[in-house]
């Protein structure tokens, strides 16, 4: 058999990514090994996806077991795993109904279409404005990337969907200036992940909820990155003192297996009658069985408490590194979605820390050019953490000492 190499990417793949030079072939817990057998501590978590690490035995068992029973039936039939997963999600949240798809982008696409449809049927076609926040990220479909507040991702594809307004995050006065009776929905992340690991101020979130209520607009919470225990709560909205009307989830929902979900209330869900929206693979039994097992493991008080404990590990370690190298202006975030914001001397150099980390044997992320992001497994062990942060300290030294 011909040996696969990293060079193949440049020969056969559409160049939408610029992947690292090493090729991982095996993972266990928060450790990865490449083709040469070199070990890496994974503090990136597949961008907040591998919430239970690599190859968690319970997930592997479920995948194999369900794979021997039923993979796919499409949605002209239902199946047991999708119904069990839906029941658990609605029982644990504000929601009454669940819709399943394959990714966060699809979950957000469904949420935006649902909000527009609900407004159209309830108030009329004139109620079509969607308000979102600058530097937000909601996916890569044309609708979601247009709602996302980063023009670099949405420009260059022709005319964008209309009636989308962007305002600064955590700026309630800016929202007050544009929201009106024409607004059908406000879309926000409880914490902007791609936008720099920037948490919503609880007072801001409460004011957004009040403005939505005053103008008969729906509040959509994009919890693709913050959901499924990432912040130390099952979903991030639970720490803000507000409930959304629609919530989206993906990433950690399947803890590595592709699945997305949209949750909402009965009255809103009712406008999605048969044929109005759908997906071939969404809610397939294989994905839902794995996600149900992940849900059962994550939605435990001990695990969620452990996420908050691990947050203190990171904050203490980063403070120690910063005391020596003075490269971080602040450390922000919640739970195990943490951003180390670079000082003025290192502006635009977040990727340099990622690259140095790879050389040192630790995987971290960026969140824009000025923030180093950590999104590890929620069950990261103390040993894995200590080895990983020792390697990250080496990477910081490499960057700061030139």
UniProtKB/TrEMBL annotation:
Needed co-factor(s): pyridoxal 5'-phosphate
Positions contributing to N(2)-acetyl-L-ornithine binding: 140, 279
Keyword Cytoplasm listed: yes
Primary location group: cytoplasm
Note: May also have succinyldiaminopimelate aminotransferase activity, thus carrying out the corresponding step in lysine biosynthesis.
Family: Belongs to the class-III pyridoxal-phosphate-dependent aminotransferase family. ArgD subfamily.
Protein name according to UniProt: Acetylornithine aminotransferase
Gene for this chain: argD
């Amino acid at each position: 058999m011909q040996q696969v190499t990293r060079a193949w990417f440049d020969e056969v793949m559409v160049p939408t990514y610029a992947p690292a030079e090493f090729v991982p072939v095996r993972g266990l817990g928060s450790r990865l090994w490449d083709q040469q057998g070199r070990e890496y501590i994974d503090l990136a978590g597949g961008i907040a996806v591998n919430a239970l690490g690599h190859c968690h035995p319970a997930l592997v068992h479920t995948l194999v077991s369900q794979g021997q029973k039923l993979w796919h039936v499409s949605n002209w039939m239902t199946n047991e795993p999708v119904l069990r997963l839906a029941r658990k999600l609605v029982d644990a949240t504000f929601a009454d109904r669940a819709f399943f798809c394959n990714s966060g982008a699809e979950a957000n696409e469904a949420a935006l279409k649902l909000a527009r449809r609900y407004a159209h049927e309830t108030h009329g076609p004139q109620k079509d404005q969607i308000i979102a926040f600058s530097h937000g990220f909601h996916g890569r479909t044309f609708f979601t990337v247009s709602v996302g507040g980063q023009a670099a991702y949405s420009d260059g594809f022709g005319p964008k969907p209309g009636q989308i307004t962007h305002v600064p995050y955590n700026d309630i006065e800016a929202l007050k200036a544009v929201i009106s009776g024409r607004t059908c929905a406000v879309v926000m992340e409880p914490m902007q992940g791609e936008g720099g690991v920037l948490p919503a101020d609880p007072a801001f979130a409460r004011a957004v909820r009040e403005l939505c209520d005053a103008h008969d607009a729906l509040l959509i919470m994009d919890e693709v990155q913050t959901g499924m225990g990432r912040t130390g709560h099952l979903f991030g909205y639970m720490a803000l003192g507000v409930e959304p009307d629609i919530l989206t989830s993906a990433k950690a929902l399947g803890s590595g297996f592709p699945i997305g979900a949209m949750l909402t209330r009965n009255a809103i869900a009712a406008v999605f009658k048969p044929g109005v929206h759908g997906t071939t693979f969404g809610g397939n039994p294989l994905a839902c069985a794995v996600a149900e097992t992940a849900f059962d493991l994550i939605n435990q008080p001990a695990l969620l408490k452990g996420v908050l404990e691990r947050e203190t590990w990171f904050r203490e370690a980063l403070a120690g590194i910063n005391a020596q190298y003075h490269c971080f202006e602040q450390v922000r975030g919640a739970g195990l979605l943490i951003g180390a914001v670079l000082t003025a001397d290192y502006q635009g150099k977040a990727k340099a820390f990622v690259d140095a980390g790879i050389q040192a044997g630790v995987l971290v992320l960026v969140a824009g050019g000025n923030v180093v992001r950590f999104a590890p497994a929620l069950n990261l062990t103390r040993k894995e953490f200590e080895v990983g942060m020792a390697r990250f300290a080496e990477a910081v030294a490499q960057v700061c000492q030139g």
